Amino acid sequence: MSQSDSDGEALTAKPIEPSAPEEFGLVQVWWGDGKGKTTAAMGMGMRAAGHGYRVHLLQFMKGGTQSVEDIRGEYNAIAALPGYTYENLGHYGWHHGQLNDDEHAAKAQAGLKRANEIIDGAADADLSTPFDPESDPESGVHMLILDELIYAANRELLSGEAVIELIENKPDSLELVLTGGHESPEYLSEHADLISNVSLVKHPFDEGTTGRKGTEF
């Protein structure tokens, strides 16, 4: 399907073919008390996948409320995009939810271990080449999104030092995107290339609105 720009020129989407980025390799951090951190990261993932790059989203925690279904809308959308995959190896829910702190920490550590496996796989791969969109993420990805990793570190479910070590171990050409947390991750100020504070101005939750299907999940 084609769309038109303001001058009436037809803009036709091209088939997605496996490709490799020429300028990836930065570390991005998205934190703050406003809505949109995960949304921004997943949007970048969609954009990268649209260029044929291999993208993987690893979530450390998400959902965990009565208003959230087992399958979130973003999972269905990601599954429809070639070269874009996801998994959730932290606790599916928020800290101080139904698990105790030890169980939360164990889930976060499992997510950290998996993140390091994928980073090690990227270090062993040739990131200047395209990847099979159906390949396992540990075989190499161009962009790795670690959603809510900063939240887990802020809650001391894993250490800031472990996050720094993860960054230092990444290959130069891997784009690494970290999200989460309401507290500033000052320990990453010298280790990230982009740090965005998504600040809260107004939120319908303050008026009692719950998460809405299609916007929050």
List keywords for this structure.
217 residues, alpha/beta, 6-stranded parallel β-sheet, 5 helices, 8 strands, 18% strand
Note down, in words, how this protein is organized.
The protein is built from five helices and eight strands; from the N terminus they run βββαβαβαβααββ. It is α/β, with parallel strands linked by helices and 217 residues long. The strands form two sheets. The chain has a six-stranded parallel β-sheet, sandwiched between helices. The chain has a two-stranded antiparallel sheet with strand order 1-2. The two termini are 27 Å apart.
Which helices and strands occur, and which strands form pairs?
Blueprint: E1 2-4, E2 10-12, E3 27-31, H1 37-50, E4 55-61, H2 73-79, E5 84-91, H3 101-124, E6 143-147, H4 149-154, H5 160-169, E7 175-179, E8 194-197
Parallel strand pairs: 3-7, 3-8, 4-5, 4-6, 6-7
Antiparallel strand pairs: 1-2
Helix pairs in contact: 3-5
Class of secondary structure makeup: alpha/beta
- Estimate what percentage of residues fall within beta strands: 15-25%
Any idea what the radius of gyration is? 18 Å
SS elements, strand count = 8
> Uncertain regions: pLDDT < 50 for 5+ in a row?
none
Mean pLDDT: 88
* Euclidean distance between termini CA atoms: 27 Å
Read across the widest sheet, the strand sequence of neighbours is 5-4-6-7-3-8
User: Which sequence of SSEs, written as H and E, runs from N to C?
Assistant: EEEHEHEHEHHEE
The profile of the biggest β sheet is: 6 strands, parallel
- Count of individual helical segments: 5
Q: Label the overall shape.
A: globular
Helix percentage: 25-40%
